[in-house]
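A note from the maintainers: we've had questions about how concatenated examples are separated. There is no special marker in the raw files; a new sequence line simply starts the next protein. For clarity in this README we add a label.
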Amino acid sequence: MSTPFNTSLRRDPDDPRGLGERIEALIRERIEEAVEFIAMDLLVQLRRAHGRPALEAGSPGDRAEFQELVQDLLRHLRRECSEGLAPDALGKVSQAEVAQGREELARLLAGQTALARLLPDYWQRFEVSKGDFARARLTAPPPRASFLARLFRRSPRTLTRRNSA
């Protein structure tokens, strides 16, 4: 018999997880999607604002920059969303993070998942915090190139002189 409700919470006979585990997985998935969307959009905006080239699909450098932005965003969310939490609630968040092992991204996502389950206003805090993060990044001056990158960068005058010789 089919039902009019097609939800992902329905129990799949091959899924050994309980309801709590399935809910936690869905929350984590939603957080992952939101953070990836925000970070990608922000990265594109930052590139435009700083006059940098567009992202390339297979670029390891672009991927690393994206991953760094994702982790920075998650760290920011951790600070902002856990502000004012009771010590026992902070302990639960820390416990969830520690359970993920050493990988920082997994730890940060587990912390956000725990916060989402603990805070009734998590998504409101999330929205405010991500807006603050994006504004701070967009108004900050572009990062300076390293000394070696500036040293070996050729100025337009140097190129003109070489072409005219």
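[label: protein 2]
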Amino acid sequence: MPEGRWAEDLASEYLRGLGYLIVARNWRWRGGEVDIVAKDGATLVFVEVKGRRQKEYGAPEEAVDLRKRRHLWRAALAFLGEKADRVPVRFDVLAVGPEGIRHIKHAFGREDVRQGG
């Protein structure tokens, strides 16, 4: 099993338990990959999963830097295509670590991915 797969499996089960519908896992496009795309009601949620088996490497969510946020934003635009302006979208981070799962809803938005900031 690939290193991050265990965290993605746990994250998917967690989201299903909350009533989310998993639309895609490891969705690939020319710019990379999105861990999970899910529906939370009418909202399409792009989920970045970060796992750490040990505390010594820091909190998993710390790895979702500006570069990663911009990547997820571009991925959402690619996934949605022409529907990008008509579908409510949210970006969440699921941090899976020794203490369990932390779900950071609305982890970032459009204002967090602008050039220069």
